Description:
Blueprint (H helix, E strand, L loop, with lengths): L4 H8 L4 E2 L5 E3 L5 E9 L5 H7 L7 E5 L7 E3 L1 H9 L4 E8 L2 H5 L4 E7 L11 E2 L3 E3 L2 E3 L4 E5 L2 E5 L3 H6 L3
Parallel strand pairs: 3-4, 4-6, 5-6, 6-7
Antiparallel strand pairs: 1-12, 2-7, 3-8, 3-11, 9-10, 11-12
Amino acid sequence: MTMMTADICDAFGDEVRVADAIFRQYGQQRRFHGPVCTLRVFEDNTRLRELLATAGLGRVLVVDGGGSRACALLGGNLAQMAYDNGWVGIVVNGCVRDRAEIDALALGVLALQTMPRKSRKGGRGDAEVTLRVAGIDICPGDFAYVDEDGFVVAARDLGRARAEGA
């Protein structure tokens, strides 16, 4: 990623939605960006598995797990699946597990913390819906930008906008 989140905030001001600083970074890819796919679940990662089994196409999956710390929504197997299928990053408003496995992958992951307990498997959840996570609205098709300084979202591809002088 050539654009850093601090530079994005400086250049695009109010056009950028800046997430509250609640996330920790996992995985080897500390900087990632791409179009957003959204998912809302609660302590059930069945729909997450379904989505990560599809072609990521360079997208960032933002998962609103309701901020639950009771179980992990993402583990090493699902992170490997995401990497293998071309997802560039996953933002989880919830927990992950298998940290060593996730940290070994060239995948970007943000989550609240780690938790060894696995999630339920009920098949509940809603994909491609507007989420409210970390104090900001995140819509399907938005563009997410993540680096060591934070997580920001915009309604358009700011890299393209910068290249076109807009």
